Amino acid sequence: MDAYLSSYATIGALALVGVVIIGGAFLVNRLLRPRRPNAAAGKRDTYECGLDPVPGGWAQMHIRYYLYAYLYVLFAVEAIFLFPWAVVYLEAGRAVIVEMAIFVGVLALGLLYAWRKRALTWQ
Amino acid sequence: MVKLPPMDYAAIMPLLILFGAACLGVLIEAFVPRRARNITQLLFSLAAVIAAMVFVVKRAGNVTAANAITAGGAITIDKAALFLQGSLLVLAFVSLLIFGERTLEQGGAFVAQAAVTVGSEKDKEQAAKSLGSTEVYPLALFSLAGMLLFVAANDLLTMFVALEVFSLPLYLLCALARRKRLLSQEAALKYFLLGAYASAFFLFGVALVYGYAKAVDFASIHTAAAVGAGNITLLITGLGLLAIGLLFKVAAAPFHVWTPDVYQGAPTPVTAFMAACTKAAAFGGLIRVLYVGFDGLGWQFTPVLGAIAALTVMVGAVLAVTQTDLKRLLAYSSVANAGYLLIGVLAGGQLGLQSVLFYLVAYGLTVIAAFALITLVRDADGEATHLSRWAGLGARSPLFAGIFTFLLLAFAGIPLTSGFMAKLSVFGAAVDGGQTWLVIFGVISSIILAFPYLRVVVMMWLSEPGESTPSVSLPGVLTSTALGVGTIATLVLGVAPGLLLDLADKAAAFIR
């Protein structure tokens, strides 16, 4: 256990050196710089490419984006499963092909449902 | 060459039927015309449940220790699993009948399009005209199939997958109420968030147990715990986290806080389904974890779970007294009943297991009938669940008030009802198992809990019906059947419980 943890000692030392360097730089900066506070109007505003910031970052997205994102995730996950399967299916035989067909079939069922419910048309 | 594990298709047939039927239900939803959908879906779902039941019964005859474990050790179809699967199917069958009811209001208890903003023009339009959604049937079937898998899981990972499979459709079902939609959506969100937390606890518990036992199946965990090598704290912490996940599902205090909100907000048929089936499935999983995987740790977990059981019965009973809404009252009563069941679980042994199995069926049938009756008492705004609205109902419709009185008496555990037999067997098993202190808590809690039940009875019969007393709608065939089955079962299991007790006794054996 001790030997295992001590192998992390280098990383710990490196992290410490990093903290010292960054912290030291800030400290030296603070000691050397001139200090002239000035609370001019607008000084602390968010800078937004030459425009005054428009109040309120809250906007409602339409629920139909959610539907598309959802369908996308469904098929992204399917693709992830298909990759390792594509590597082995030739040597693994018929049963594995049937299994993947069932998996894809169930997902296709969902897509069929979405299509029939007109979830795929942008209204 | 990948070697596939041998599958005993006869054993897992009920699962395959239900999952397949749920998938086909999605197709029905997509292709059958809207008008015919409800009846098609209902008949199809009921047929699937019956078919699954046939295979469960057929399997029960020839299950042995040698052929119980299948699917590469992921599933155990032993007698206890078959009993639980059978009771889940029966309870789900009766609840599906209430799902299908369309005569009480147009379109039934479910909203057609849950995504429409509440209170908008479109919402008013769909409330007035549209037919209810029928996606509830595939969702319920998916959930039911998950429950069947959950009670038969032979390792913790399968159990976790099953837990998610039966929970996710339930979260959706909760949000689909036709009336009081904001309440329903709130309930679904709360249930989802808290359920997700509980699942995370469960999963972390699985990781810790795996860290100790180097395996997730119950036999290996049992062996590893018996050997006792390594850091036992890891195993105990893991069990604690698993227990949190499971106790959340059974609604034991202090993990019960979601129960009243969800029971109140969910559409009443879904509430009935949850109160009966989720409870049975979650307890099925809990007893399997405790009896099969962790039975060597009895000394460690019994005091802790005992304290939780005592807390649960007291919290459920005391908070039920303060409720003014019938659905919330039944929710707290369901919390207290989770406590009684937990007492039976801790009783241990054959007797404890038998009493828990019996209790799950008896309570499930009674609670479905009670919620079926709640769907009948309505006014212009839907169900009138506030207690004051039920005052004087006995004068308006003596039959239904009488049935509800009988059901409440069963909850209170009056002799000649199934509630009495269930409580008797659980407490008896606990005394035999050396848990007398829990029985004392259980009896005190039952006495406290009798008060809110009897208050409802007194209000129904002894108050004058006022202006605001709603009328009792005449139930359609479906609700009447569900109500009748539940009520008759409550009576029969109270008068002649022998048959089911024998069955539960035969089933009270796990195969490791």
Provide structural commentary.
The complex is a heterodimer of chains A (123) and B (512). Chain A is mainly α and 123 residues long. Chain A is 67% helix and 0% strand. In chain A, α3 runs antiparallel to α4. The mean pLDDT of chain A is 83. The two termini of chain B are 30 Å apart. Chain B has helices at 9-31, 34-61, 79-99, 121-128, 136-152, 156-174, 181-213, 218-227, 232-250, 258-265, 268-293, 298-321, 326-347, 349-374, 393-396, 398-412, 418-432, 436-462, 477-495, 498-507; strands at 69-70, 75-76, 377-379, 382-383, 471-472. In chain B, β1 and β2 (75-76) form a beta hairpin. In chain B, α7 (181-213) crosses α8 (218-227) and α14 (349-374) runs antiparallel to α19. Chain B is built from 20 helices and five strands. Chain B has one domain. In chain B, the strands form two sheets. A three-stranded antiparallel beta sheet of chain B has the order 4-3-5, with no helix packed on it. Chain B has a two-stranded antiparallel sheet with strand order 1-2. The chains are: A mainly alpha (123), B mainly alpha (512). The A-B interface holds A 63, 88, 91-93, 95-96, 106, 109-110, 112-113, 115-117 and B 1-2, 4, 23, 26-27, 29-31, 115.
